[in-house]
Amino acid sequence: MTRSRSDALSPVDCRPLRGVIFDMDGVLTDTIEFHYQTWQRLADEEGIPFNRHANEALRGLSRRDSLLRLLQGRVLPESKLQELLDRKNRYFRSFIETMTADSLLPGVRPFLDDLREAGIKTAVASASQNVYVVIEKLGIAPDIDIITNVYDVDRPKPAPDVFLYAAQQLGLGPEDCVVFEDAESGVEAARAAQMRVVGLGDAAQVGAADWILPGLEGIRWHHVQGTLGAIAP
Fold this sequence. Notes:
The protein is α/β, with parallel strands linked by helices. It folds into two domains: 19-29 and 100-228, 3-Layer(aba) Sandwich (Rossmann fold); 32-96, DNA polymerase, domain 1 (Orthogonal Bundle). Helices cover 42% and strands 12% of the residues. It is built from ten helices and six strands; from the N terminus they run E-H-H-H-H-H-E-H-E-H-E-H-E-H-E-H. The chain has helices at residues 32-46, 52-56, 63-71, 78-96, 108-118, 131-138, 161-170, 184-192, 203-206, 221-228, and strands at residues 19-22, 121-126, 146-149, 177-181, 196-200, 211-213. It has a six-stranded parallel beta sheet. The protein is globular and about 50 Å long.
């Protein structure tokens, strides 16, 4: 599905894209099931209603924001909140220790190779505090120039901060970058950053993206540049 905006640039005004910023979960690898199982375990231990449908609402949110959503307005002392966050992370880390290069989603490895060959700068900007460990486990750290997460900035997604920070670290402007996202909050953040954005997955979640794809399988850099290069950020 291709979406264009009315303010498309003319070929003369168009600046080629020079950087790609990836979200991690649901874009490079799928840890959604890991997150579901660990949130479900925590919820069961605390007597909090939770299910797979509720888990979908946590896509793209930071761990703290996810916990607050899980609590549904229940007020807890900061010490208890931190204990729950730490416990959830321990459960999640036990899952990610099992990850390997085989955990990459289809199409990611050839797309990264294509970006490197084209001289495109790359970043990962995730809501996960575990992004550094996961990227190492996936074996793609040499292919990523900058790794960051929402804990490096003041505001989490859907604020644009983490994407703007990633672009700054790459030495690029927002107009130079395209974001790959699978969550509504991430698409909203990319749009707020004035970046072009490719939404991966269900249009119900990424419908505001400039271009919607089921995934990265079969996608090459010239497809992205050809589709989005003439769309104003």
